[in-house]
Every structure is written in structure tokens, then in C-alpha cells.
């Protein structure tokens, strides 16, 4: 791992400048370069990320990222229509699955939220159309590490979390929701000097909000 520059940018052995957190593990590099901050409209991917952010509570994202394929296998690829039909036998199966985080409350929250996702789509058309209503206007420039450190929640993440809770979702606090917004490209929090910032900004500019 390279030293972290004062502005929060790390230049890896491959010569790529990244947000400092992304140079700490190979899994982080790929996730940062190809996924984090790039806009997503697909309902399954959005549901998966909300679910995994809930599992992350109290843990590192790297822990969850390394288990992501196991989570996908355990939860039927996060096809929420299928997950909504899970019952107690599935909860017990998942509690025995060493490949995932075996936390009853979080497992039950994903199953509950799958049912709420089905309801939300019936009411709003798609999960993508719903969550993107809460996206703020794109920032006109990248932020410094000091500026971004102030963002663990925003008015938009608080509003989305509040509305999800009103609809019966669980494990969707404003901090969890803001992390979801960062990763799914509703905000572009790649730092000033990060090679991915402009790519993410271009992707957002060409993205059609559902």
C-alpha cells in the first residue's frame, strides 16, 4: 500500500491516483475504480446495495465486499421477489451459512425489506425511479478530503431514510443510506485528484434518471 498524500489521495503501485481508502486492499481498488460513485438504475443492484449496507452496520465495508458473492448465493442474487417469500426455514439456513454475516436481525431485515421493495415498486414504478428522486444536484467540482469528511449524512439521505422507514424498511438509517447514495452514484464523492472523479462525473452526466 502506498503512503496517503495529505489531500487524501493515494497513488498505487499501478500509478493510479485514488481516494485514500481505495488503496488499502485489491478488492477496494476494483470496487473504487469500476463501481463506487457510478450511477445505477437497476432495481436488483439497488436492493442488493441497500441490503449489504445494512449488513455492514458495525463492520467494515471490506468485510462485506469480500463476502459479497456468498451473500448473493445465499439471497438468490438479491432477486427481491424471491427473497420476499423466504420464511423461518430460510432464516435458519442463513444463520448456519458461514459465508455471510450471521446476524438474525439483519437477515430478517433483508427479507422484510424485500417485501417492502415489491410494494414500493407497485406504488412507484421502480426502485430506481424512487431512490433517484432523492439525489441532490451534481456537485460542480470534486471535494477535498476535509470537505468530504463532513458528509456522513445529508438532508437527502435523512429524507430517504425517513421515507423508507415510513414504508416499513429496516436497517436504513441516514448514515447507511448516505453510504448507499455514494456507492450507487447518487452523489460523486471521489476526491479532488482522484482519477475516477471525472469518469464518474461523465457517467452521471450521460445517465438517464429513471
Strand adjacency order, main sheet: 1-2
Secondary-structure class? mainly alpha
**Average pLDDT metric:** 93
Write down how many β-strands occur, each being a DSSP E stretch of 2 or more residues: 2
Helix content: 40-55%
Largest sheet entry: 2 strands, antiparallel
Overall body shape = globular
Task: Give the key terms.
210 residues, mainly alpha, two-stranded antiparallel ribbon, 12 helices, 2 strands, 54% helix
Q: What does this entry look like structurally?
A:
The model has no long low-confidence stretch (mean pLDDT 93). Strands 1-2 form a two-stranded antiparallel ribbon. Strand 1 and strand 2 (17-19) form a beta hairpin. The termini are far apart. Helix 10 (155-166) crosses helix 11. With 210 residues, the protein is mainly alpha-helical. It has helices at residues 26-34, 43-56, 61-66, 68-74, 80-83, 88-95, 104-124, 127-132, 145-148, 155-166, 174-183, 195-206; strands spanning 9-11, 17-19.
Write the layout of secondary structure elements.
Layout (H helix, E strand, L loop, with lengths): L8 E3 L5 E3 L6 H9 L8 H14 L4 H6 L1 H7 L5 H4 L4 H8 L8 H21 L2 H6 L12 H4 L6 H12 L7 H10 L11 H12 L4
Antiparallel strand pairs: 1-2
Helix pairs in contact: 2-7, 2-11, 10-11
Give a short overview:
The protein contains 12 helices and 2 strands.
Amino acid at each position: 500500500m502506498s503512503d496517503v498524500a495529505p489531500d487524501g489521495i493515494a497513488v498505487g503501485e499501478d500509478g493510479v491516483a485514488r481516494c485514500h481508502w481505495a488503496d488499502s486492499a485489491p478488492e477496494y481498488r476494483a470496487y473504487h475504480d469500476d463501481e463506487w460513485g457510478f450511477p445505477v438504475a437497476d432495481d436488483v443492484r439497488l436492493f442488493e446495495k441497500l441490503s449489504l449496507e445494512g449488513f455492514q452496520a458495525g463492520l467494515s465495508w471490506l468485510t462485506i465486499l469480500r463476502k459479497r458473492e456468498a451473500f448473493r448465493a445465499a439471497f438468490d442474487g438479491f432477486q427481491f421477489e424471491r427473497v420476499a417469500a423466504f420464511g423461518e426455514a430460510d432464516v435458519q439456513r442463513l444463520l448456519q451459512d458461514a459465508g455471510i454475516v450471521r446476524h438474525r436481525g439483519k437477515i430478517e431485515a433483508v427479507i422484510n425489506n424485500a417485501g417492502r421493495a415489491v410494494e414500493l415498486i407497485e406504488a412507484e414504478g421502480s426502485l430506481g425511479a424512487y431512490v433517484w428522486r432523492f439525489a441532490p444536484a451534481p456537485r460542480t467540482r470534486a471535494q477535498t478530503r476535509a470537505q468530504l469528511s463532513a458528509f456522513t449524512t445529508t438532508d437527502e439521505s435523512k429524507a430517504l431514510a425517513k421515507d423508507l422507514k415510513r414504508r416499513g424498511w429496516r436497517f436504513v438509517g441516514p448514515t447507511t443510506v448516505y453510504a448507499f447514495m455514494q456507492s450507487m452514484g447518487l452523489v460523486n464523492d471521489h476526491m479532488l485528484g482522484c482519477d475516477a472523479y471525472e469518469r464518474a462525473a461523465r457517467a452521471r452526466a450521460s445517465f438517464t434518471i429513471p
